Structure formats: structure tokens, C-alpha cells
Amino acid sequence: MPNLNKVGTALAGGPGENSAIPSLLRLRVTLTVFFALDGFLFAGWVVRIPAIKQQTGASASALGLALLGVSAGGVITMMLTGRLCRRFGNHPVTVACAALLSVSIALPPQMHSALTLGLVLLVFGGAYGGLNVAMNSAAVDLVAALRRPVMSSFHAAFSLGGMVGAGAGGLVAGRLSASSHLLGLTAVGLLVTCVAGRDLLRHPVPSVPSAPRTAVRETAKPRRLDSHSRRLVLVFGTIALCTSYGEGAMADWSALHLKQDLHAHPGLAAAAYSLFALAMTVGRSTGTALLERLGQTRALVGGATLAAAGLLLGALAPTVWLALIGFVMAGLGLANSFPVAIGRAGALAGPGGVATASTLGYGGMLIGPPVIGFLADWLTLPIALTTVALLAAVAALIGYASRNASAPAAA
Q1: pLDDT tens, per residue, the chain with 411 residues
Q2: Has residue 304 been placed in a domain?
Q3: 323: domain CATH number?
């Protein structure tokens, strides 16, 4: 018991709340599983995009248009998920979206045209967008209850799941068809959702310990924002969009770039996103210490600058290994840019700011791939990928320009 008391004091901020700590820790583990599952399933899909492109016979622009189904489904669902969470709760919506995502991932390899592929990707994108908003909302509640900045650990779990999913996809790419592979992911996803979902549904929404209010959460009605604060939330949402645009592009186009432009083996091509996700995992796992040492502005600007250089190298490198080095640099640079932008929006506007910036951010992740598809058809895929580096540089500039834009409570 003495050790538990120390843990309770450290996590909850006071010795009077020790009894709630085991429940909060179990909830944190359960939510971490859902973040990891999300990354695992999404990576499993993206490493099979080259095979599905070949199966449908789609051009780069037709594939980009089909991928727009993911974007459209995700953005529409993100706008609706907040209402669903308020009506049914964050936890039930998280479980429902995880189950739908698991089922829908088996549909793309059954399609044989870009049109039908785009239609089923509407469902897949809707489930993906809904799951991200619901589980992030649940994570915001838990962060407020713990009163510790553990949000980066959830995003690290997403990156770790993506790394494992991409690595497994690379191993089976030459042995299993896309249909068999993604059907197997459906079985894994449903199994994990059943086990972790049962535990998540048992947990009520954690209550905020009695303490002074923080800038991240308000227990009363959401505060009204002036126009200046709203503009700042949109600024940080734009930073999130610029950085997540690169994450989405790496997910959907990195493997195809290595295979098509640098003639890499399918297994090695799949390793591109796996290495990118590994670098993201490492960067996010050490994010708290990095932010404490450098501060938010330097971490954001430095990370976005590193990402811009890495993405430029990955897009234009003449060899596979140089491209892979560029993708690792990009993963390290982008790792904490998104969480920092979301955190600063939350410091300004509470959960409403988090929701707005997250929607813009995930919208960038979903919109990037189809945009690159169209540019690849008009120009070339390597040139199209340089737009990712450009937006990362824009994020660095915006981050530096907004360095003094924190709300007083955030200090």
C-alpha cells in the first residue's frame, strides 16, 4: 500500500484520491490499446495500397480520387462524432467505431474499380475519423482526471501500432494476397475490440479531482471565446493540418514511391512506413522530456524544420536507403508537432479548442493522400511529395510566428 499511495499522489495530484488511481490506470491501459489498434489497422491498409491499385487498374489520379473517399468519410464523421459522444458517451462510440473500422478494412480488396473502391473507403474513412475523435475525447477526459500530460503516450501507442502493422504487412506482402491479409486484420480487430471494449464500457467517464481549474478542461459550461482566441485556435489547427498532411502522405504513398520510382522490393517498400512509424513512436515516447527541455515553441519549430528536410530527402533521394533515412528524419520531426499544436489550442479554448484543432489536423491527414495522387498524375510522384516538405516548413514558420500566443492560464 505505501507504494500505491506514492503512485496515487504522483498521478492524481493528492493523497486523498488514491482509491481512484487503479481504475484510472486500467482505463489508461484500455485506451492505449484502442490507440494502438487504430494505428495497427490503418497501417495494415496502407501497406496494401500498391496491390489494390494494381488490382483495380487505377491510375494515380483515379487512385487519389478513390482515396478521397477516406477523406470525405472521415471529415463528415468527425463533424458528427462530437454530437454522438455527447449523446451516447465517448466510450460506447469508441467501441462502435473500432468494430466498424475492423469490419470495413476487409472491403477494399474485394473491389475491382476505382469507383467501388472509393465508395467502400467512405465507410472505412468514416469509421477511422469517428474512432479518432471519440478516443481522443476519452483521452482528454482521462488527462484531466490524472492531471498529468500523458496525451503523447496515447499518440505513441498509435505510432507503435502503425509500426507493427506496417512491419507485419511487409512480412506477408509477398506471401498473402491483400484480401487474405486484410481479412485477417478484421479478425484481429474484432477480437481486440471485444476484449478491450468490454473493459472500456465498464468504466464511467472519469471525474476531475477537486482542484483549481486548469486551462485544459473546464467542468462548467464551455467559455465563450473572443474573435482573437478563435483565430488562434484556427492557427494551431492549421499547424496540425500541415504536419498531419505529411503523416497521411507517408502512410498512403511512401510504399508506392519506393516500389514505383526506386524499384524497391515490395517488402522493403512496406518498410518505409514502418520506419516512419518507428521514428514517430520514439519521438512521441520521449516527447514529454523534450518539451520540458526545449519548450513548446522550439520543439515545434525544430521538429517541423527537421521534418521538412527529411521529407524533401525522402521525395527526391536517388536511392532507397537515402529515402528511408529521410522518412526516419520526417518521423522524428513530425512526432510532437501535432500534439503540441493540439495542446496549445486546448490551453486557449479548452475541449472546444482541442476538437476544432483535431478536426483540422486529422482532415490534413486524410486530404493529403488524394491531393498527392492528383499532383502525381499531373507531374510525378516525387515532385508531388515535395509538397509535404513545403507544408512542414509552413508549420515551422507559423509555429515561430505564434510563439507568444499562449493563453495566460497555459503558463
Answers
A1: 344 344 344 434 444 444 456 788 889 999 999 999 999 999 898 888 888 888 888 777 788 788 878 878 887 887 788 778 888 888 999 999 999 999 999 999 888 888 899 999 999 999 998 898 888 888 878 877 877 767 778 888 888 888 888 888 888 877 888 899 999 999 999 999 999 999 999 887 776 555 444 433 333 344 455 677 778 888 888 998 888 888 878 877 888 888 888 888 777 887 787 788 788 888 888 877 787 788 778 888 999 999 999 999 988 988 889 999 999 999 999 888 887 787 677 667 655 666 677 778 877 876 777 788 888 888 888 898 899 899 999 999 998 887 766 544 433
A2: yes
A3: 1.20.1250.20
In a domain, 5, yes or no: no
The single residue listed with the C-alpha cell 484481429 is: 188
Element of type H or E holding 303: helix 296-316
Residue 6 lies in a domain: no
Q: Cell match 468490454: residue? A: 198
Domains in the chain, number: 1
Give the max Cα distance, the chain. 66
Q: How far is CA 169 from CA 41, 70, 277, 369, in A?
A: 10, 20, 13, 19
Residue numbers of the domain that contains 237: 20-208+216-404
